[in-house]
Specification:
Blueprint: E1 4-9, H1 13-24, E2 29-35, H2 38-48, E3 52-55, H3 64-74, E4 79-84, H4 89-97, E5 102-105, H5 110-121, E6 126-127, H6 129-150, H7 156-166, H8 171-178, H9 182-196, H10 201-210, H11 213-218
Parallel strand pairs: 1-2, 1-3, 3-4, 4-5, 5-6
Helix pairs in contact: 2-3, 7-9, 7-10, 8-9
């Protein structure tokens, strides 16, 4: 297997020496360059075109996230793995948005770090187990917000009417279930179609199912 070229980016020389020693004892990797700032990191990537950049976040001047964003934009085939002591959510999600292929904490063991770099070389993404749960929580939160936004223009009663429409209920059946007049339900349905910009009950029902209205209502 051809060795993968690695660029180390950290402003602490001792850290770089330790990482270089670890990686060069592995016959899969070759440390081709080192950098201590974001600016140097970009310059080294341009010069050496490494397979993977192992990047700290806190650097003098611009951050590792800034460097990551520029590198992944200019050289999409270069993978950036963030190696940091910081597990804060804002840094984690900023790194992901910047295009990082991995986010691991410096407390990780040697095997875990090697696994993260290997994953990056394969084009896979890897997160430190210590931060993975928070990513899933953020994704779930974003999904809930998206679902809520899908029905933001509907009143509570309209949401309940739409839920019954999605079950195939007639206006009379909806009126009985919600203790409303049939004419009132008809008006609600008309309003729902207008607000959702759909043409008929079938499209409204499909919209409700697609955006998980039933789950959303259950959490109100």
């Amino acid at each position: 297997m051809e060795k993968k070229d690695i660029l180390l980016v950290d402003d602490h020389e001792v850290v770089r020496l330790g990482l270089k020693s670890l990686l060069e004892h592995n016959d899969k990797f070759d440390v081709v360059a080192e950098a201590r700032t974001a600016k140097e990191a970009v310059e080294m990537v341009e010069k050496y075109q490494p397979d993977v950049v192992l990047m700290d976040i806190r650097l003098p001047g611009a951050s590792g996230i800034d460097a990551c964003q520029e590198i992944t934009k200019r050289w999409p085939d270069v993978r950036v793995v963030i190696l940091t002591s910081y597990a804060e959510d804002d840094m984690l999600f900023s790194a992901i948005r910047a295009g990082a292929s991995g986010y691991v904490l410096k407390q990780i063991g040697a095997e875990g770090l090697i696994a993260a770099i290997e994953a990056a070389c394969r084009g896979d993404a890897l997160l430190d187990p210590a931060v993975t749960q928070r990513v899933f929580q953020e994704v779930r939160r974003a999904v809930k917000e998206e679902e809520a936004a899908a029905f933001a223009n509907l009143s509570q009663q309209e949401k309940h009417v739409l839920a019954l429409v999605s079950e195939g209920k007639t206006n009379r059946e909806i009126a009985e279930a919600l203790f409303l007049g049939e004419g009132t339900v008809r008006n609600y349905v008309s309003s729902i179609l207008s607000k959702l910009d759909v043409s008929n009950r079938a499209e409204a029902a499909a919209y409700a199912v697609t955006h998980n209205l039933r789950d959303y209502i259950n959490h109100l």
